[in-house]
Design a protein that fits this description.
With 624 residues, this protein is of the alpha/beta class. It has 18 helices and 19 strands. The chain has a 7-stranded mixed sheet with strand order 9-8-3-7-6-5-19, with helices on both faces. The longest helix has 36 residues. It is flat and about 100 Å long.
């Protein structure tokens, strides 16, 4: 019997049908990824499954006695509690079970319950409660709270910080930790990686795979997370829900074949209809007019009832970017760089100085692809800005080579031309960056189409666009502006998966000069993007250390886990044994390796992202 099911869900916003006849179910222990373009209704559907929003029609049912937890993107935390106290409140259900078990023991000792049938019922209930308590962590609650908070990147010194003093990103991670500690039978996770750096994402993967035994429905833009955690993908496309077995990589392969089949069927149908329309035009006024009229009626019925939708996207993007001027061989040179800031008490650092990095020397040559990785607050953006001479170093030097034309995508965008439609914004930006370059409306519309702005979307003003749409427009303008050095700081933060994959294709240099052929410096927590576009790493560990690795992220991570590159670690500071997080069994083998997810040390955290919240929902009867 399914733990959770939805039947024939329909939901509209104005005249737009967002969900049409959607049915869904999940069994115990299943892990399901919910994907689709931004705005297709993923969050709406998961809110309906969590009983936070009602459909126009259809029903949602949670199996009797099952507990459901929901992580949303809106904070619902107690601001009067400390970080540790709020996390520990995730054990409220466990406390209730302990209290009921104590009452059962009290009743068993009561002579009035000495009859065999009463005592047997009490013993059965005792067994059920003890099994439930054991599955939820038993009695080691304090240790588990510390383990989860460490895993999500909090320091011991932050445990006493009031919730009201946390940033939006810290609240989001706290809400996730609280839900993980609640250990419901089914978890609904809406973008759980939004506020996590790479190590936090890997820790969450390990926790969901090896420590949590319940069912999971997850909305995520992290392709690695979907590959490593889920065994089934549900895609929302055209208000329908399409089921795909396997992880995200399998989904991409199966979906491409489905789209190719659909495209062939569409082309065949269009060809047949074109022949019919030609016959109707030729004979509509002649001796065969009656036959032509009959064919016209039949054709109109076919178009109304059996029309095959044209697939919106097939295969990889073919994008030829304007050729940038050739830069010098040396694009950027950093020598003995050091950056120190005053420590912030809100991050648990106390007074004094905080070293972001020191003794960093790196040479970036023309055509190199570098990623800068490290935990939140490690100094990645600071390093990039110092390399571009936007910030002074405490010590050391940086230099940009001759003929280097920089395109910088910052996390906080400058004021944009909000009144302009997309195509005109692209045209204006490219002409502004390349005086004298002719860039027609059609070229601007072609570029917009390559970045997934279809049809009337190209005429939308920037001011009415979502954050993801604005990010796509900015990236499209930057990539087409003939820069020979691109510096991208978290470019996928607001992008859905198709948009991130489109960016990935644009950054690759393919055959026949397609894609970006210059030098790339990338800051990102998107492991798939780093693997696909970068083959050199600058690793900041969050404790003031920096190291260089020649290879992509997966190669660095494999070496890190193997212990062959101990300098490339984000856990240089030892965690006292009494404070080390509990480790799932599958993580113990890697526990002696520095920087493994299970050995993540306490570290400072920065961020002002939106917070998250969790809702625990229990069903004592079928709920609709």
């Amino acid at each position: 019997m399914p733990l959770l099911s939805a039947t024939n869900i329909k939901y509209t916003i104005g005249t737009r049908v967002l969900l049409d006849g959607v049915s869904f179910s999940i069994e115990a222990g299943e892990r399901v990824g919910l994907v689709g373009r931004n705005g297709t209704g993923k969050t709406t559907l998961i809110r309906m499954l969590a009983a936070r929003q009602k459909p126009d029609s259809g029903s949602v049912s949670l199996a009797k006695g099952m507990r459901m937890g929901y992580l949303s993107q809106d904070p619902e935390l107690d601001p009067t509690k400390t970080l540790q106290e709020e996390a520990a409140s995730g054990f409220a259900e466990l406390g209730r079970l302990h209290a009921e078990l104590d009452q059962v023991f009290h009743d068993m000792a009561d002579p009035a319950n000495g009859a065999s049938d009463k005592l047997e019922r009490l013993m059965d209930r005792q067994s059920e409660l003890q099994e439930r308590i054991e599955s939820m962590g038993g009695y080691a609650t304090e240790h588990r709270v510390e383990a989860v908070l460490h895993g999500l990147g909090f320091e011991d010194s932050q445990f006493g910080v009031p919730v009201s003093g946390l940033s939006g990103g810290q609240k989001g991670r706290l809400a996730l930790g609280k839900l993980l500690l609640e250990a419901p039978d089914i978890m609904l996770l809406d973008e759980p990686t939004n506020h996590l750096d790479i190590v936090g994402r890997e820790w969450l993967e390990e926790f969901l795979v090896n420590d949590y035994r319940g069912a999971v429905i997850m909305i995520s833009h992290d392709r690695k997370m979907l590959d490593n955690v889920v065994g089934r993908i549900e895609e929302i496309d055209g208000a329908r829900l399409i089921d795909y077995p396997g992880n995200y990589t399998a989904f991409r392969e199966i979906r491409l074949q489905r789209l190719l089949t659909q495209h062939r069927a569409y082309e065949n149908q269009q060809s047949q209809w074109a022949k019919e329309e030609e016959f109707i035009r030729r004979f509509r006024a002649g001796q065969r007019a009656k036959e032509a009229q009959g064919r016209l009626s039949k054709l109109e019925r076919q178009k109304e009832l059996f029309s095959i939708e044209r697939p919106s996207e097939i295969g990889a993007m073919k994008l030829r970017l304007p050729e940038a001027p050739r830069s010098a061989d040396l694009v950027s040179v950093v020598r003995d760089a050091k950056k120190v800031y005053p420590a912030r008490e809100s991050d648990g650092g106390g007074s004094g100085e905080r070293v972001l990095f020191h003794d960093l020397t790196v040479t970036i040559n023309r055509g190199d692809r570098w990623a800068i990785i490290g935990p939140n607050g490690a100094g990645k953006t600071t390093l990039v800005r110092a390399m571009l001479s936007e910030l002074p170093l405490t010590d050391g030097t940086t230099k940009i080579g001759a003929s280097v034309v920089v395109g910088y995508y910052a996390q906080l965008p400058p004021g944009a031309d909000d009144e302009l439609p997309v195509w005109e914004y692209l045209q204006k930006q490219i002409k502004r960056e390349n005086p004298g370059l002719g860039f027609s409306e059609q070229q601007a519309r072609d570029l917009a189409g390559a970045f997934l702005f279809a049809g009337r979307e190209q005429d939308k003003q920037l001011k009415v666009m979502s954050g993801g749409e604005r990010s796509r427009a900015r990236l499209a303008a930057l990539l087409a502006s003939a820069k020979n050095l691109l510096v991208l700081d978290e470019p996928t933060n607001h992008l859905d998966i198709p948009s991130a994959e489109r960016l990935e294709e644009a950054l690759r240099q393919g055959e026949d000069g397609e894609g970006f052929g210059g030098t790339l410096i990338l800051i990102s927590h998107d492991r798939a993007l780093i693997d696909a576009t970068c083959d050199h790493l600058i690793v900041l560990d969050g404790h003031g250390n920096a190291s260089i690795f020649n290879g992509n992220y997966s190669q660095w991570h494999a070496r890190q886990l193997a212990g062959d590159n101990k300098k490339a670690t984000w856990a240089a500071a030892e965690v006292p044994k009494s404070r080390q997080p509990a480790r799932p069994a599958a993580m113990k083998a890697a526990a002696t390796q520095p920087g493994s997810p299970s050995q993540r040390s306490a570290r400072g955290q920065q961020g002002s992202e939106r917070g998250g919240s969790c809702l625990l929902y229990t069903s004592d009867a079928a709920d609709e």
